[in-house]
Amino acid sequence: MQIRKLNANEIPPFELLLLADPSQKLVEEYLRRGYCFIGLRNDQVIGVYVLLPTRPDTVELVNLAVDENHQGNGFGKQLVKHAIQIATGLGFKTIEVGTGNSGVGQLALYQKCGFRITGVDRDFFVRHYDEAIFENGIQVIDMIRLSQDL
7: helix, coil or strand? Predict the structure, then answer.
C-alpha cells in the first residue's frame, strides 16, 4: 500500500471516513483543521487517516478506516505506523487516539502499535452523536483514550 497526503484539490474519501465516524459534520470539521492521508492499492483508495493537532506538541489520530474488502490484511497497522512517523516528523511529542468502548479490534490494533490506555471519556458518544451507534452488538457509549510518547 502506498500512503500519501490528500492533495488540496482532491475530494476526501467520505465513504471511508464515515466508516470510522458516522458524523459528516464532525468529519468535515476536523478535515478543515487536520492532515488527511490516504492509502492506495492499485490506484484505488483503500484506507484513510486524519491527524489533528490538539495541544502544543500533541496530535490526535481522529479517524482511521480501511475499506471493508481490505480489512484483516495489515493495512490498518500500516496506516497507524505511518501516522506515528508523520507525527514524529512534524515535531509532535505525543500522539493520542480515541475509540469506542466496543471496538475490540481497534483497541487491540492501537495497543499492538504501542499505544497505552490513558482514560475513559464516559458517555462521549451519547453526548456528541444524535443517534445510537452499535458495534459488535454493543452500544458505543464511552470513548477509550490511548496515547503514545513519540
Answer: coil
Instruction: Say which CATH number the domain at 57 has.
Output: 3.40.630.30
| Beta-bridge partner residues of 98 | 145
Output the tens digit of pLDDT for each of the chain's 150 residues: 999 999 989 999 999 999 988 889 999 999 999 999 999 999 999 999 999 999 999 999 999 999 999 999 999 999 999 999 999 999 999 999 999 999 888 999 999 999 999 999 999 999 988 889 998 899 999 999 999 999
Burial of 135 from C-beta contacts in 10 A (0-12 / 13-18 / 19+) = middle
Are 61 and 48 contacting, i.e. CB atoms less than 8 angstroms apart?
Answer: no
The secondary element (H helix, E strand) that includes residue 79 is helix 75-89
In a domain, 145, yes or no: no
Cβ–Cβ < 8 Å for 125, 100: yes
Q: Among candidates 55, 50, 9, which has minimal Cα distance to 31?
A: 50
104 and 136 Cβ atoms separated by less than 8 Å? yes
Q: 7: domain range?
A: 2-97+104-115
Where do we find the cell 502544543? Answer: 56
Q: Is 28 helix (H, G, I), strand (E, B) or coil?
A: helix
